[in-house]
Write a structure and sequence with these properties.
The structure is a single chain. By secondary structure, this protein is an all-alpha fold. Helices cover 84% and strands 0% of the residues. It contains three helices and no strands. Helix 2 (37-63) runs antiparallel to helix 3 (69-101). The relative contact order is 0.10.
């Protein structure tokens, strides 16, 4: 499977944004010691939904002739990358659940 340069750039941008957002949280967790996985998961899901909504909004604006095509492509690539990540995480969670269910008691 060939990786398109635009997809690679969008992936790099998404990862760099995740790193910037994760840095304050990581500091707060290590300083306070009260990190909560459910809060992290909730924030990640909300961020994913916001990214996908932004891609949809930009696509709608482009259809109306109100947005720059470069911004639209970046937003849609980011939304696609986010969706692929969410699907991959879901698949891993389902596989882990099935693995646990198949363990002998």
């Amino acid at each position: 499977m060939a990786v398109l340069p635009a997809a690679a750039a969008a992936a790099y941008q998404a990862i760099s944004q995740m790193g910037a957002q994760a840095t304050p949280t990581a500091g707060a967790v290590s300083a306070g010691g009260a990190g909560n996985f459910s809060d992290f998961l909730t924030d990640a899901v909300k961020s994913s939904i916001d990214t996908i909504k932004q891609g949809e909004t930009m696509a709608t604006k482009q259809a109306a002739g109100q947005a720059n095509i470069v911004d639209v492509v970046n937003a849609v690539n980011s939304a696609e990358l986010t969706l692929n990540t969410v699907v991959a995480v879901r698949d891993k969670v389902v596989a882990a659940y099935q693995s646990i269910m198949n363990m002998p008691i």
